[in-house]
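Ticket #4471: structure output looks truncated?

Reporter: J.K.
Steps to reproduce: submitted the chain below (84 residues) through the standard prediction queue, then opened the result file.
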Amino acid sequence: MICEEWPKGASLWTYLEQAVEDPLSALVVGGERALAAEFPPEAHARQILHAIGSGQRTHSNIAAATQDIPRATCASGSPSSRPA
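Returned output as attached by the reporter:
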């Protein structure tokens, strides 16, 4: 689908500039479908990826940019890091 809508002779950056501005482009729709299939709504993947795409790179900056997402904390770390 992406190849079908790619303008003939357009560079990668030209196509990307056009595709990300169109909410119905194959690139955007495909990305949204992948997010919906891989992450449950409560994972807030869209908001987190939006923060990263907006230039946030550190955990604290991403957290600040996604303040409306409830935080889950675990004082002893993840289950995989706990001794058996």
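Triage note (M.O.): checked the attachment and the full token line is present. Residues 26-38 form the longest helix (13 residues).
Status: closed, working as intended.
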